[in-house]
Amino acid sequence: MLYNYRGADYLLHLVDTPGHVDFRAEVSRSYASCNGALLVVDASQGVQAQTVANFYLAFAQGLSMIPVINKVDLQHAEPQRAMEQLQANFELEDPVLVSAKTGLNVADILPAVIERVPPPEGSPEKPLRMLLIDSWYSTYKGVVLLVRVFDGVVRPGDQIMSMGSKLKYFVGELGIQYPTEVSTSALRAGQVGYMYFNPGMKTISDAKLGDTFCHVGKEVEPFRGFEEPQPMVFVGAFPTNQDEFEKLEESINQLTLNDRSITIAKESSHALGLGWRLGFLGTLHCSVFEDRLRQEFGGSELLITAPTVPFKIVWRDNSRSKTGETIITNPSLYPEDDVVRTKVEEIQEPFVLATITVPAEPAEFLGNVIELCQENRGVQVELSFFATQVILKYKLPLLQLVDNFFGKLKSVTKGYATLDYEDAGYAKSDVVKLELLVNKEPVDAIAQLCHRSQAERLGRMWVHRFKQFVDRQQFEIVIQAAVGKRVLARETIQAFRKDVTAKLYGGDHTRRKKLLEKQKVGKKKLRAIGNVIIDQKAFHGFLARDSNAPTSKSKK
């Protein structure tokens, strides 16, 4: 935007960054296009977990920080407490006290930006050195790039080169976001703007974020680039009608055009048929995409499996992997028990360092949070007390975090706790593969990797819940949860009893005994060759996140 301050016009580049941890990589890229940041704190809530995480992310990139305390108009606002927290946690002073609702002091923010954030460095006289910050797909223009020019000048018609791929392009159009696209004659050192090529990039995958562009024949020192975000939550997506597999593929491809962080791979399930294995940055990222996919494809025609996380198998030698390690994102790829015993050195699961903020009062909130973390295999790293809040840091398994940990946290603190987390790498864990068996046949769509200590509890819940979706049939149905050959839980659905003696008259006990014996032998045969076919709607019910989802029976 253009802003006139004390008689001079300033071109300001403003970015609104998401606060959720799932989009941390996007926040980091946004910081690369900026010289400063507004750290906004709610006057009624004070410093939150996301505030801490985003401050250190911006601080690590050397941004000038301007604290802003919002919602000072609320009756229960405590701006003085928020100021003390900013000073104690981040050594930040002179915040701008505002109310976005009433407009109080909002006009003071941009002057503070101009006075306290240094202007971008760089010279238009130097060779072009340009950083690719973001990209998206336009139906009419193809791949559009968002770039920051650090040195030099770039104009339409210039031939530039990607220093990562060495591919060359002619600049078609460029300009600034004002906030919509406004074309200009050039982008100069210090400016951030959009551009697309003519002819355009063939695919969005050619636009590698963090890449350096220069004029052809004038190579420069490339930027370090961005760390590629790795998917940490995986689900399976299957059409209930296999004839619509191609329609699902089209829907997924359409939605992933502008979200390169999603990984997709074809998957086949004996129970559900052909589908896709989708990888996401986190649970919110997964939930948002799932909602969009249901709208695009049709919610009732789509089945999404329970989320899981990647596990690392460390082999005893390099015969199965060049690096001696294998990352698995699908429980079906977990090795058999004999392979685990003889070939596997250890199995590791991903951990996160979680930062949780809790009000100091009432005191039971802190006890509830500590108990919740311990129940989820958390290890306390730090515990800090402040005047009105407590900040806890726990090392938690990511697997526990995707199991509605945030919902449980909100429940035990009546919605007052906040959560943020960062990757803490992999660590050795006692991981097992839990399977659901129906008449001794595994149901692959419901298999899951979990910690051994959680297996029995999860298994009992599975068999109890799955039982309600299976109809009684002419033979006994046994539902089991097992780890390897060890059965942890069992439910039995008794067979229908057909009255084969109804046609008898009189008291012929010999004939009656013979018919009952024949029925017994027939049921034994059915039990030996019987195969329970579970209706797709049963999987919808069982895999639904809502435990109160309506039940749906199976058919033979």
TrEMBL record:
Molecular function as annotated in GO: GTP binding; GTPase activity; mitochondrial ribosome binding
GO CC entries: mitochondrial inner membrane; mitochondrial matrix
Membrane topology: Peripheral membrane protein
Subcellular location: Mitochondrion inner membrane
Chain ranges passing through the membrane: none
Keywords: GTP-binding, Hydrolase, Membrane, Mitochondrion, Mitochondrion inner membrane, Nucleotide-binding, Protein biosynthesis
HAMAP family: LepA (MF_00071)
UniProt xrefs under NCBIfam families: lepA
Family stated for the protein in its record: Belongs to the GTP-binding elongation factor family. LepA subfamily. Belongs to the TRAFAC class translation factor GTPase superfamily. Classic translation factor GTPase family. LepA subfamily.
Name under which the protein is recorded: Translation factor guf1 mitochondrial, variant 2
Organism: Orbilia brochopaga
Gene assigned in the entry: GUF1_1
